[in-house]
Amino acid sequence: MAEQDIYGGKLAGHSPSLPKGVFTGSGAEQDRYGDKFSGHSPSLPKGAFTGSGAEQDVHGSKFADHAPSLPKGAFTGSGAEQDVYGNKFGGHSPSFPRGSFTGSGAEQDIYGNKFGGHSPSLPRSSGTSRYGSSGAEQDVYGSHFHPGYQGLGTSALGLLHSTVLPSFSLHAGLSAVAYGVSRYTDRVEGKDWLWASGLTLNAWWSAVGSRVINDGVSFADAWSGLHYSQKLLLAGVSAWGVRLTSRVVSRSVKRGKDDPRYEAKTKEPGFWNKALFTTFLPEAVAQTIIALPFTVPFRAIGESIQASPVTSNGQLFHALAIFLFSTGFALETLADAQLEIFKKDNTEEGVNREGVWSIVRHPNYLGDALIHLSFPFLLIGSGIFHPITALGPIANYIFLRYLGGDKENEESQAQRYKHDAVKAEQFEE
Prior knowledge:
Blueprint: H1 3-6, H2 29-32, H3 55-58, H4 81-85, H5 107-110, H6 137-140, H7 156-185, H8 190-214, H9 219-224, H10 228-255, H11 263-266, H12 271-290, H13 296-299, H14 301-307, H15 314-346, H16 363-382, H17 391-403, H18 406-416, H19 421-428
Pfam families: DUF1295
Region (Disordered): 1-135
Protein name: Steroid 5-alpha reductase C-terminal domain-containing protein
């Protein structure tokens, strides 16, 4: 019972009692006491509210702007404020499409139709890749790229742009420097100093250096960002490169003159004028191809993953790669050590046929071939093998056997052994 009912008669008799009975209005004060205020404030609509419960529905009719009530019933839209209150803002902002979203959840899918009506939603498709839900951006957002589009990174042109050309630029630049130094010192073997060291430098630049310089990350972050298999690959290339470079440099310094293999070449008229294009840059091309197994997995990791064959024998390929590398590395090391011992003890009488030299004529080249063969197997076991990397060990073997290395040694030894009957006979056997 309100006070004005109990004591109303005591207050000068001018305050009529409130209506008796049950209130059927909203229960708001303007419904219960509205007729007390000059009689100009109509009561709110009586009955149950069927709107949204928002203030503009409950009290909307009290405001002069006459904002219509929100649509009655359950909301079937996104639940965003534009859907709930959209028709309150000048009536020009259409609600979002009702129903569940079938897109990716990206903003351009949810709100695309709000921007002038000209931005169609992106094509819907499953974001799952052949690798399952990896969480990688290409898996999550892959459906936003045109299905007919193949970016540079997934094509031969992409590998040429991201890997081959940068590698060749690096090796060509280093070869130009080596050419200048070699011409100045009149020693062609300057290119040999660059062979293993240049390949190792390219591997480190592809894996770490390019990220430090181009992306501005620290060396520690660039290194920690590598997968275990990538670190193992980089360690193997480094071990091979450091050993071979130290061997070439030590022999060159000890000899004090150019390698005998190049003596005949330097005597050719105009040799140095054409050597850059006939000797140094061709080796830069060979280095670029040989370096593919340890540049592509760093420069084009996404393409390598997509192109790599799926295997359940990853550990087996890893073990095979380690076996090949270890065998090749041991063979190279033993061959060089045994050759030095033979030269000291036998004063270079005859041809060395002891130890690993009794297996093949050039065990150090065989070891080198095994080392390079191990890299693709490591990539297969790691799931980052791109078929183009198989060209690496093939090019290395062809170069050693038919272009440089073995071929140059054979030709040089045949000329030098002409005046040594013992060596000439053993060499021909």
